[in-house]
Amino acid sequence: MKHLCIGDDVEVGPGTYSTVLLFTHANSEATSDMILVASQNGRIAASPSHLLKVNGALAPASSIIIGDRITVASDGTLQEEVVISVKVEKMSGLYNPQTSSGTILVHYRSGAAVLASTYTTAVHPAAARALETPLRLAYEVFGATLPWLSNVFPETDLPGQASTQMLSTPIHFQNFAPGAYYSWETSRHTMYASAIYS
User: Distance (Å, rounded) from C-alpha 75 to C-alpha 109?
Assistant: First the structure.
């Protein structure tokens, strides 16, 4: 998660991608209790209030117990698997990217990715989704992201995104050159960095 940037496309399902619109948390130095959940193939570390798809519905990670079912990306499909382990562990780093779909597949160490919501119990998912509507529209209509919004959250420490320079760069256009397409693996990071630091 610490290598993601606003504007990156992340996997939200087998072969399905969604754009990172902003981060509500991005702090590599934060230490907090995380819930480690494992099924036969999937593993995830999430904050206690983070919402995951559990038994077919959204539930906070702190409510998950052995025997519940989580959604895992396996063999090119999303499948439910039985939770075989739940434990709490102090961990460093706290990241929560918000995607245009409201979901994300999370890979934790070894194992298949687990389907998670990008929302927490702090704000009801329907309200959070409504609040993000202008961000989704800006991206879908204009190809623009608003990276300075992550500055609203004081713990943000993503490269270039916590900088006061961001206030002078209110909109970042993904497709900067007419007709150009930038893939998130390499070119978009470079373009993004040059847009921030130039």
Answer: 18
Whether 23 and 84 have beta carbons less than 8 Å apart is answered as no
What is the rounded distance in angstroms from the CA atom of residue 109 to the CA atom of residue 89?
15
pTM: 0.71
* 36-49 pLDDT tens trace: 999 999 899 999 99
- Say if residues 185 and 154 touch (Cβ distance below 8 Å): no
Residue 181 lies in a domain: yes
Tell me which residue range forms the domain holding 69: 9-197
Q: What's the pLDDT tens digit per position in 108-138?
A: 776 788 999 999 998 898 898 888 888 888 8
- Distance between the two ends of the chain, CA-based, in angstroms? 25
List the one residue out of 57, 118, 52, 56 whose CA is nearest residue 86: 52
Q: Give the CATH number of the domain where residue 164 resides.
A: 2.170.16.10
Say which residue the tokens 């399902």 belong to: 13
